[in-house]
Design goal:
Largest sheet: 6 strands, mixed
Shape: globular
Number of helices: 23
Structural class: alpha+beta
Strand content: 15-25%
Strand order of the largest sheet: 9-8-10-28-13-14
Distance between the termini: 44 Å
Number of strands: 33
């Protein structure tokens, strides 16, 4: 583009800036702006250096300076793929346009500049390698988790660069309805027509332009085809690519239309170049020139008109439907609170409440992510979110919610213990969070502030506007400890232990308190109208059974049955090992016909991407006899597209319930169950069945959310993403009410105390890369700890994997070499200029 004449260059820039892709995708996500700048900028720099417009070292320096922008684009990792592709293709583009010498120079500059960028970006990609361990690949890779984003993924929409799913919702795009006007209906397709129109104007003698146009058109058509994703016709190519390792990075393929926008800009620029060159040829008729000029003006006006929200300002939305305006200014009270916390002599970690229920939070002045908070504070800030490519750990999310619930229920003992486990002696209450908010579960900031005001040991140390910073007194170190039989313990157990006691993930240790977590009720064995489980524990402890979250003291378990909750009893049988039997009595049945004596109703399409899927035979449901199960009747769900489902309303009024079924999975996607909560309008959080080709029993405890008015059971067969058919069978479906589905733990007090091992803890989040003398353990399910003999010095140090360590060393060395090379070349250039100036003044 830098070597084009002014008119073609301006036309290309106009198309790249004012296109429907910018109006849809970029208008929603600012990360796309960074990616679009890099997508056009980095290849242009390489071609400019290869064609001698700028010096190679200037290109290297620009690449190094772009490292933060590349890191910002990495917030959406798939966006780096088209950027890398364009940089790889830049030598071929330079060779086609400016000759083989320019192509070779561009290739050499690309190699050095890319390596320099790789090294300069080590500060963000080295941690990114560590983050790969926690990438939610299972959640991200399931097509059902994102296929809803393809509701507008058609070839027609891809061609005009607008396949974004939210386009039909005024909440996200208040100006979308204007595009139904006749003049915009036509104008939005002018851009692709202008881009591909150059193919008919290029002359056979102009080989360079012809090659670029043909290559751009071919790549654009391929991306438009694949960008329809799992829908036809692109599924023919997309589905096999998606099945490859790391194929989940291709999810939501509409984002790659960014590259089509760049190709359109290049193709339009080439076409305008051909047009303006014809004007300059001698002997061209004046009338023909005027016609072409008028045509070019009309085409340019239509292209700009199709992107009117960008230059009219409508792209940045105002207040609408309960959401705040996107014209945002950071309130002064946030900077003042950060200044106060940053000026404190001791930087103590801060827990931010209310806890996030989604990665975008509704503030009175803003709706979006909380990324600005850790950027304001120099202290460590805990504000976890459970969504995204690298979500916070389940343990951290659970601990944050437990702290919030403990405060709201005035369980001060547990609230203080969880804060100790999190290592956050300070709590920041965001009073500018809107709660309640539509269809969201956000705790009231006012109630949290009131709870902290009543909590013993909590002191309000600073207030700025609606923000309150509280300090809670904590012990300096955990010395006593209890063992727990899980690496992800329920932190509610801390309230059952003496103050300052830590939970260490380890097998039982003689002389130390032992905590055994009782399996969830959904996994207990069915015995008539009850559910039973047995646990074998050591005989060297006195065992008590506790209901977490209950104010009732733990019950000692002995030979006589004890009742620990309504309908829940426990009894112990002695010996060298103690066996504890727990029995839970079920309530009334909530499902009238779980044996399918008659069909539940016509099959439904619970992912209706195809019209009339049932009539076309794409989804089916039938009740038939099936061998291997008592009663012999089952519902058989089959789907070759969309999602076949059957439903049944549960006779539920209140309380928890136990859901069970016998399931068999014959082909395709795994069985799936949903208990739909009418009111909150979402599926209840339950475990999903793991189907096999043999009948297996599935059980789950359902805890309906507050505000639920009715429960509806859904059974599914989801069509596989890669073609074929899903066949799932369900039988013996049961739902029964529970007086309560408590979380139970056994706490064993040692008959004799021992101090043979001591615990040393670290405030850092647990990672196997930490090293120290002693046995490395997980403390409170969150942090590092080491068990060692008394007198052993434990000095933790971080030692990442050998690959990362070697990479860091090589990176540091290469940075030194690159910077030294740039400095030497600069000095050599300055010395050469001095010599040339001196020789120029000599007589």
């Amino acid at each position: 583009a830098l070597r084009l004449q002014p008119a073609p260059a301006a036309a290309g820039a106009l198309v790249y800036l004012f296109n429907p892709y910018t109006v849809s995708e970029v208008g929603i996500n600012a990360v796309y702006i960074a990616a679009m700048v890099l997508l056009a900028g980095l290849p242009a720099i390489l071609i400019a250096a290869g064609s001698s417009l700028i010096r190679p070292r200037t290109a290297v320096v620009i690449f190094v300076l772009s490292a933060p922008l590349v890191g910002y684009a990495y917030a959406n990792p798939p966006l780096l793929a088209p950027i890398a592709l364009c940089c790889l293709l830049s030598p071929a583009a330079a060779r086609s346009r400016f000759g083989s010498l320019a192509g070779r120079r561009t290739l050499a500059v690309a190699a050095v500049a890319s390596l320099a960028l790789f090294v300069a970006s080590a500060y963000w990609w080295v941690p990114a390698l560590e983050e790969l361990r926690v990438v939610a690949s299972q959640t991200l890779s399931a097509p059902g988790a994102w296929s809803w984003t393809e509701i507008r993924a058609t070839v027609a929409n891809d061609l005009w660069l607008n396949a974004f799913w939210g386009w039909k919702y005024p909440l996200y795009f208040p100006y979308a309805h204007v595009y139904s006007a006749w003049w915009l209906q036509a104008a939005k397709y002018v851009l692709p027509l202008a881009a591909f129109g150059g193919l008919f104007a290029v002359r056979a003698a102009d080989r360079a332009r012809a090659e670029l146009l043909a290559a751009g058109a071919l790549i654009a058509l391929v991306i438009v085809f694949v960008a329809t994703g799992t829908r036809t016709p692109g599924s023919v190519v997309f589905d096999p690519l998606y099945s490859l390792p790391l194929g989940w990075l291709l999810r939501e393929p509409g984002r790659f239309l960014m590259l089509v926008a760049l190709l359109y800009a290049l193709m339009v620029a080439i076409g305008v170049g051909i047009l303006t060159r014809d004007w300059q040829e001698p002997g061209s008729a004046g009338r023909a020139r005027r016609r072409r000029l008028i045509g070019a003006t009309v085409v340019g006006a239509a292209i700009v008109a199709a992107a009117f929200p960008l230059y009219t300002g409508a792209l940045v939305r105002g207040a609408r439907q309960g959401f705040p305006s996107e014209h945002v200014t950071l309130p002064r009270y946030w900077t003042q609170m950060a200044a106060y916390a940053n000026a404190a002599p001791a930087q103590r970690s801060i827990l931010v409440l209310p806890a996030d229920d989604f990665y975008q939070m509704p503030y009175r002045w803003y709706y979006g992510s909380d990324g600005f908070i850790p950027n304001l504070f120099s202290a460590h800030v805990v504000v976890p979110a459970g969504q995204g490519y690298t979500p916070s750990s389940a343990e951290l999310l659970t601990a944050t919610r437990l702290e919030q619930n403990s405060l709201l229920s005035h369980n001060w003992r547990l609230a203080a213990r969880v804060l100790e486990a999190l290592g956050t002696p300070r709590v920041l209450v965001r009073g500018d969070i809107e709660a309640p908010f539509r269809k969201r579960r956000i705790a009231s900031p006012a109630r949290l502030a009131q709870a902290l005001a009543q909590m013993p040991g909590a002191v309000l140390i600073h207030r700025d506007g609606p923000l309150q910073l509280w300090a809670v007194s904590q012990r300096a170190h955990h010395q006593p400890f209890a063992t727990v039989d899980s690496e992800t313990p329920h932190l509610g157990s801390l309230a059952l232990l003496p103050a300052g006691t830590a939970l260490v993930s380890s097998g039982p240790l003689a002389g130390h308190t032992s905590v055994e977590q009782v399996p969830p009720l959904g996994s207990w064995t069915a015995r008539g109208v009850a559910r039973v489980t047995t646990m074998t524990v050591g005989a060297g402890w006195r065992w008590r059974l506790a209901v977490l979250g209950s104010r009732r003291p733990p019950e000692a378990v002995g030979r006589a049955p004890v009742t620990v909750a309504p309908g829940l009893t426990a009894v112990a049988h002695g010996g060298s090992r103690t066996t504890i039997v727990l029995r839970a009595r079920l309530g009334e049945p909530l499902l009238s016909d779980g044996n399918f004596t008659r069909p539940w109703g016509a099959v439904g399409d619970c992912n209706a991407l195809h019209r009339d899927a049932a009539a076309r035979g794409l989804i089916k449901a039938q009740v038939a006899r099936s061998s291997g199960i008592s009663g012999g009747r089952a519902v058989i769900l089959r789907a070759t597209a969309d999602s076949a489902c059957v439903t049944h309303v549960l006779r539920w009024r209140h309380g928890d319930l136990l859901l069970s079924a016998t399931v068999r999975h014959l082909s395709g996607s795994q069985p799936r169950v949903c208990v739909w909560e009418v009111g909150p309008d979402r599926c209840a959080a339950i475990t999903q069945p793991a189907g096999t080709r043999r009948w297996s029993r599935y059980q789950a405890v359902v805890k309906p959310a507050r505000g639920t008015r009715r429960l509806v059971l859904f059974l599914y067969a989801d069509a596989p993403a890669l073609g074929g058919a899903t066949v799932n069978e369900y039988a013996q479906v049961r739902a029964a009410s529970l007086a309560r589905a408590p979380v139970l733990v056994l706490v064993g007090a040692p008959q004799a105390r021992s101090d043979g091992e001591r615990l040393t803890t670290s405030p850092d989040g647990y990672s196997s890369a930490w090293r120290a003398r002693g046995r490395h353990v997980i403390v409170d399910g969150l942090r590092n700890g080491w068990l060692a003999k008394p007198g052993v010095m434990v000095t933790p140090h971080y030692l990442p994997s050998a690959v990362i360590s070697i990479t860091q060393i090589v990176s540091l060395g290469f940075v030194t070499v690159v910077l030294g090379w740039v400095a030497l070349m600069t000095l050599a250039e300055c010395a050469g200029r001095r010599r040339r100036s001196r020789s120029a003044v000599r007589p």
